[in-house]
Amino acid sequence: QVQLVESGGGLVQAGGSLRLSCAASGRTFIRYDMGWFRQAPGKEREFVAGMWWSGGSTFYADSVKGRFTISRDNAKNTVYLQMNSLKPEDTAVYYCAAKESYTPEFNYWGQGTQVTVSS
Predict the structure, then answer these.
(1) What is the DSSP letter of 104?
(2) Rounded to whole angstroms, how far apart are CA atoms 39 and 114?
(3) How many helices (H) and strands (E) does the chain have?
(4) Which helix (H) or strand (E) holds 72?
């Protein structure tokens, strides 16, 4: 199993940047696919970005492509989400997620961190 703890959320003005961090427990972190999701008030949780352990392929939602970057530091068991050019519509609770490479869906979740972008 893996436990995930997010940090780095906060209040930022539109056009600003934030970097979210997700610290993972477990010695096999390197073999987990990692992802970031978000949920805005009154909306369903949506995929933001993902990074597979094998080959390091990355994937992004169209709404954040070119503005957000997911990365991981396996030595620190940490995955990051660099968010640039933030918009008010990026306001949400952001969740870190993990899954074993052989499972189809993310099955480990952090507690979430709030990101608020003011206009």
Answers:
(1) S
(2) 10
(3) 0, 11
(4) strand 68-73
Q: Kindly give the confidence (pLDDT) of every residue in the chain, 119 residues in length, as a single tens digit, with 9 standing for 90 and above.
A: 889 999 999 999 999 999 999 999 976 777 899 999 999 999 999 999 999 887 789 999 999 999 999 999 988 999 999 999 999 999 999 999 999 988 899 999 999 999 999 99
Amino acid identity of residue 118, one-letter, is S
Q: Name the residue among 116, 102, 111 with its Cα closest to residue 37.
A: 111
Q: How many CA atoms lie within 13 A of 28 on its CB side?
A: 9
* H/E segment holding residue 50: strand 46-51
- Longest pairwise C-alpha distance within the chain: 42
pLDDT at residue number 56: 80
Q: Which residues contact 19 (CB under 8 A, 6 or more apart)?
A: 8, 80, 81, 82, 83
